[in-house]
Hints:
By secondary structure, the protein is mainly alpha-helical.
Amino acid sequence: xxxxLSIALPKQGQKWFPRRMxxxxxxxxxFLPDKDRYNIVCHxxxxxxxxxxxxxxxxxxxFSIIRDPVNxxxxxxxxxxxxxxxxxxxxxxxEDPSHYFYLxxxxxxxxxxxxxxxxxxxxLEVSDFDNRTVIEGKLKSIEKEFDLLMIAKHFDExxxxxxxxxxxxxxxxxxxxxxxRFDNLxxxxxxxxxxxxxxxxxxxxxxxxxxxxxxxxxxxxxGTSKMSKAVSQLQRERExxxxxxxxxxxxxxxxxxxxxxxxxxxxxxxxxxxCQLLLDPKELIWNYMSPISVKQSS
Length: 298
């Protein structure tokens, strides 16, 4: 926003792009004429190269972030309140995952399937969840089309690689961990359950293993000593912004259908525009992407 870049957003009244179908340019709020290209798409969506090209142009830098499939599915199960929907806990679900998966699929009540949610967001169709040839082809396409897949577990290192990729300043990649659940509200899983999750979400597991290796190679190329220094500098910069922007912490209830998931949110300095962007950017970005501001930035 400091550089007056245009941002593709869902249409007004929608928090995210529809997840039941691949991304389409027609899903974007019409801030710009169809013939024009946006500078940024940074939102939950299902990746569709052809339509992303129509939205951003072919020269755009592409990056995303992935997590350990075990943590992804545990979070998914809590967020979508699966236990309330089918009356079984996570452990029982994995006694017969195929049965419960198709039960949920037939209900058409979820915008994200109860299997391989990360690969689904990268464009893999449910009908191909057991097709190794298609999955391997999709992984090769992701590697070819994306410049960086960041790793949530190594978030700070990911931000340094992103800074390098985008050729931007360090404070451009400073961010706070917002909308995160408290650790004591996360499922305690034994090794057996974790293994079942990895086996059921095996396409997500292949994605994670492949790009974790690639990520590690990128860190090595950057230089481990150089990376360590950069991460320390980033953390110091983040603490400066926290001192400037954060007044306290709130607890917020979220979740699909039943509001029992508690997440951490910051109380912030409402008079500081940059702090507002770090703490809760949604409304500010909408105001920024008004037709008037787009006209001024063109």
